[in-house]
Write a structure and sequence with these properties.
globular; Aminoglycoside 3'-phosphotransferase, Chain: A, domain 2; 8 helices; single chain; 2 domains; Phosphorylase Kinase, domain 1
Length: 288
């Protein structure tokens, strides 16, 4: 079988069927930036998800990423966090050809275009629940995605000095923080909704221990890119109201700069697109 981008998944499906039994239907899920995601229907009608770590640079690190996701999902089974449950792992791709992870399918789908008061509250509640988790396994320390190689004013910038100020801030050590359990890629693209309510959070490959506000910042940046800076501020305020944790501008800046591409890599967005201008507006807001 070939996927929409001509990936042959025959071997991967054969491996999955050894675990879950005959597969009666396969459909490709949308929205995966790092992976090919397949929903597999088994006899009886139940569905599972097969992650195939097919896209670089994540494929190169796929063994660690899929192993981390499997371990974390197993740990989260005893918590209130609505996460998928791990079923089987082919971390080195010996059977599937690429690192692979088989997991349960949660109800719902993503809706990045939605933004309203109810959703803001549910997102804040969900992130607070994640941050309350006390890990029972070793979880790695967080990594900044704002590497110094990215400290170059983007060609589309309207205010180059703003970016230079951001780079200067990030050259200093981060503020002290209380270590918390992080999703590390918490954003609407990874939150599932069904009948208007949050039903789960997916994509646990980047899970870390670090500052809670870094998770908040990442969701804020993603909201700002799609809905504008006001939406980001509303979510941040809702999270603060629930947790008492105050904004940490250093980590907001870290997250915004993390969206810049390193030298030689394609950017996330078109230079003249509205997303980059909203990204710069977010940076101006958090730098004060």
């Amino acid at each position: 079988m070939l996927t929409a981008d001509d990936l042959d998944v025959t071997a991967a499906l054969a491996w999955a069927q050894e675990v879950i039994g005959p597969v009666t239907a396969v459909r490709e899920l949308s929205g995966g930036w790092t992976s090919t995601m397949l929903a597999l229907t088994v006899e009886g009608g139940d569905e599972v998800v097969l992650r195939l770590m097919t896209r670089e640079p994540w494929r190169t690190h796929g063994t660690g990423l899929t192993t981390r996701e499997s371990d974390v999902q197993a740990m989260l089974a005893s918590t209130p966090v609505p996460a998928p449950r791990t079923v089987a792992l082919d971390a080195e791709g010996r059977h599937c050809g690429v690192p692979a992870h088989l997991m349960t399918l949660l109800p719902g789908c993503t809706d990045v275009d939605r933004f309203d008061e109810v959703l803001v509250g549910e997102l804040a509640d969900l992130l607070a629940t994640i941050h309350d988790v006390e890990p029972t396994i070793d979880v790695r320390a967080y990594q900044s995605w704002a590497w110094e190689a990215k400290f170059r004013v983007p060609p589309w910038a309207r205010d180059p000095d703003l970016w230079l100020a951001a780079f200067e801030l990030l050259r200093a050590a981060p503020p002290e923080f209380e270590p918390r359990f992080l999703h590390r890629d918490f954003q609407p693209r990874n939150v599932l909704l069904s009948e208007g309510r949050v039903t789960g959070v997916v994509d646990w490959v980047e899970t870390s221990i670090g500052p809670a506000w870094l998770d908040v910042a990442h969701c804020c940046t993603n909201l700002a890119i799609v809905h504008g800076d006001t939406a980001a501020d509303l979510f941040a305020a809702a999270y603060t109201e629930r947790t008492g944790r105050r904004p940490e501008p250093y980590f907001d800046v870290m997250d915004v700069v993390g969206f810049l591409p390193p030298p030689g890599r394609a950017a996330f967005f078109e230079d003249d697109g509205p997303e980059n201008q909203r990204l710069e507006e977010r940076l101006r807001s958090v730098l004060g």
